[in-house]
Design goal:
Blueprint (H helix, E strand, L loop, with lengths): L7 H21 L7 H22 L12 E8 L7 H10 L5 E9 L3 H14 L3 E4 L18 E6 L6 H11 L7 E8 L5 H5 L18 E9 L2 E10 L9
Parallel strand pairs: 1-2, 1-4, 2-3, 4-5
Antiparallel strand pairs: 5-7, 6-7
C-alpha cells in the first residue's frame, strides 16, 4: 500500500472538517450519535485508505496513453457530511492521481443543511468546490455552462444507484460525451456478502479488470484500515465507449 501523506495545510483543513461534523452532528445527524468521535475517526481512516488504494491502482484505469498531465474532474454523489467528498478533495488537490491535474470538484447533496455544511468547510479551506442541491439522475438540470474535457471520477459511499442511473446524470453534465468516467463505490470486501450478491443488479461492465483498449470493465479493489477490510467497486468507461441511454 502506498505511503502517501497529506501536507500540514490539508491535515489542518480536515481537522476543521471533523470538528464541524461533530459540532453539527447532534442537530442533523451527519454520523452516528453513538460514540460519534470513534465513528468520525473510522470514516476518516476508511476514506484515506480507499484513496491510497485508488492512487496505487490508478494507472490501470486511465484512458489512452499520454505523458502530459491530464485534467481530472471529481464528482461525489450523496456527499452528506463529506465522506468521502471533502476528504478526497483534500487528497486530490494536495497529492492528486498519477499524471492527472484536478480541474474541478462537484459535491452533490440534495439536503439543504448538509449542503450548507459542505459549502462552509470548503470555503474555509479555500477549496474550489461546487456544491449542488440536486438528486442525481435523469431529471437533474444541466450544468450552467459547458464543461471542459476531463476524466470524470465519480464516488458513492451511501447512495445505491445503478451504472445507468449514474451515467444518465453524467450525460446531462457532458451531453457530447467523449470523455472517460471512472465510478468508485464503497462496498464490502467479502465476495459472499449480501452487498456483493446485490452487485448483480448494478449494471456493472461484464469485463473483470482491464482488457482490450476502449472496453469498459469493473474491478473490486480491496483496502485495509484500522477498522477492518473494505473495497472500492470500480466501473471504468473509456472515452471511446458510448454507453447507451436507458
Amino acid at each position: 500500500m502506498s505511503c502517501l501523506e497529506l501536507s500540514l495545510a490539508a491535515r489542518v483543513a480536515l481537522e476543521r472538517h471533523g470538528a464541524e461534523v461533530l459540532r453539527w452532528n447532534a442537530r442533523f445527524s451527519l454520523i452516528s450519535r453513538v460514540a460519534p468521535e470513534q465513528r468520525l475517526l473510522a470514516l476518516q481512516q476508511e476514506c484515506d485508505a480507499a484513496f491510497r488504494a485508488l492512487h496505487e491502482a490508478w494507472p490501470e484505469f486511465r484512458s489512452g496513453a499520454s505523458g502530459d498531465a491530464r485534467p481530472l474532474r471529481y464528482i461525489d454523489l450523496g456527499s452528506g457530511g463529506g465522506f468521502p467528498g471533502l476528504i478526497w478533495q483534500a487528497w486530490l488537490q494536495d497529492v492528486g492521481l498519477p499524471d492527472m491535474t484536478l480541474v474541478g470538484t462537484l459535491l452533490v447533496e440534495p439536503r439543504d443543511k448538509r449542503a450548507w455544511l459542505l459549502e462552509q468547510v470548503a470555503r474555509a479551506a479555500g477549496w474550489p468546490v461546487e456544491v449542488r442541491r440536486v438528486h442525481w439522475g435523469r431529471r437533474q438540470p444541466p450544468p450552467p455552462s459547458l464543461l471542459p474535457p476531463a476524466h470524470d471520477l465519480i464516488t458513492l459511499k451511501a447512495l445505491r444507484l445503478t451504472d445507468d442511473d449514474i451515467l444518465s446524470g453524467w450525460r446531462r453534465e457532458r451531453p457530447d460525451g467523449g470523455t472517460p468516467v471512472t465510478i468508485c463505490r464503497f462496498c464490502s470486501a467479502e465476495d459472499g456478502s449480501p452487498a456483493a450478491v446485490a452487485e448483480a443488479g448494478l449494471g456493472l461492465p461484464v469485463a473483470d479488470g482491464p482488457g482490450a483498449p476502449g472496453t469498459p470493465f469493473s474491478r473490486r479493489l480491496p483496502f485495509s484500515h484500522p477498522s477492518g477490510l473494505d473495497a472500492l467497486l470500480i466501473s471504468h468507461y473509456p472515452a471511446t465507449h458510448r454507453h447507451a441511454d436507458a
